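hey
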């Protein structure tokens, strides 16, 4: 496993979720460049440093003994990784304060270190929230690998923070340093909203949600085929996003006991607010989590899932496979996993290996809806 060596620390870091023979490391050249740049500046134990979108804790762990570090991001797995990597490197668990992206970190901050996220709407919302939170002389430094650094990221820094200086490239990484200037208080365009015709409901979507402006086409294909009138079943919407699958299912199944879970804090925030607006005080367990990892065995009758096929910029089916495995463990005997997936991903074969019995419920030219039954 590669070791992160910086002017601040020498760290052994792991990714989350853990995979056997992990092909990827938990840091990259953008982390190294950012920490090297920061080391050229004055930083002491009283300095307040905000770290944004630190996927596996590389930045926060490096600075844990150097300053007052607040880490904020939208990934529950990032929080899990931070905790494990602090412990793995004999750093105190309380050395870094974590603030989920559904909440606003409280300044003032002397330095803000940003890993540019895949979703620029998340970056925009984070920059908007920095208004009035920066100490005199503060700097905001964003880092990314060049292939993942769109011009629009610099435009957002300029718009909400101040003049931006782009660094030279080092190991295919680049830094954008913004110097704060006086700006009027910005108004956030988030959350966004869209309306469904069938059923007639309106859904809100916080900044980091996939398909904020309209229902994604996979879910659109899935909704007409959700099972109805199944009575008092224990049902989970796994990877719930804004909660649309779980909410629409709950409307058709008033006795169902619902669990909605996602690893995105902004997804969970959106799902909670949508549930409240549409279903009022009807009980539901809506939480951020590592999929169904915390769900007791044999505790669910039905799992609904529109699985992701990427983690940040990494594309693959390992997250979906993990969700299917978690679902099988959490389902009772005879329980069912219903999913929608792109045809080309071959989920039918994967589910058949895991569950044995798999049926195609419906199909479109692009998607299949599958039903796997736990033996």
């Amino acid at each position: 496993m590669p070791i992160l060596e910086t002017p601040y620390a020498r760290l052994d870091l792991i990714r989350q979720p853990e995979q056997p023979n992990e092909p990827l490391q938990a840091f990259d050249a953008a982390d190294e460049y950012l920490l090297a740049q920061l080391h050229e500046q004055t930083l002491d134990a009283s300095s307040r440093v905000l770290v944004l979108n630190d996927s596996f804790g590389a930045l926060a762990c490096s600075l844990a003994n150097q300053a007052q570090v607040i880490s904020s991001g939208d990934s529950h797995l990032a929080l899990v990784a931070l905790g494990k990597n602090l412990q793995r490197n004999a750093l105190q668990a309380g050395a870094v304060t974590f603030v989920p992206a559904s909440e606003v970190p409280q300044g003032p901050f002397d330095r803000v270190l940003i890993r540019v996220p895949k979703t620029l709407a998340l970056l925009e919302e984070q920059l908007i929230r920095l208004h009035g939170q920066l100490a005199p002389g503060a700097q905001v430094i964003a880092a990314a690998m060049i292939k993942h650094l769109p011009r629009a990221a610099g435009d957002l820094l300029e718009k909400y923070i101040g003049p931006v200086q782009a660094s030279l490239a080092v190991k295919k990484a680049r830094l954008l340093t913004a110097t704060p200037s006086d700006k009027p208080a910005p108004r956030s365009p988030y959350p966004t909203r869209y309306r469904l015709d069938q059923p007639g409901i309106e859904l809100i979507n916080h900044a980091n949600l996939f398909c904020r402006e309209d229902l994604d086409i996979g879910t659109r294909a899935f909704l007409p085929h959700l099972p109805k009138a199944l009575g008092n079943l224990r049902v989970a919407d796994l990877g719930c996003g804004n909660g649309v699958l779980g909410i629409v299912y709950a409307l058709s199944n008033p006795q169902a006991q619902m669990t909605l879970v996602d690893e995105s804090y902004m997804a969970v925030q959106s799902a909670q607010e949508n549930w409240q607006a549409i279903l009022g005080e009807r009980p539901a367990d809506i939480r951020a989590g590592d999929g169904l990892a915390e769900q007791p065995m044999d505790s669910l009758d039905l799992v609904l899932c529109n699985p992701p096929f990427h983690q940040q910029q990494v594309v693959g089916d390992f997250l979906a496979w993990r969700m299917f495995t978690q679902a099988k463990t959490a389902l009772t005997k005879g329980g069912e996993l219903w999913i929608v997936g792109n045809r080309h991903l071959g989920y039918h074969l994967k589910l058949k290996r895991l569950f044995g019995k798999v049926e195609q419920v419906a199909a479109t030219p692009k998607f299949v809806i599958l039903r796997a039954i736990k033996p």
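The mean pLDDT is 94. The two ends are 38 Å apart (CA to CA).
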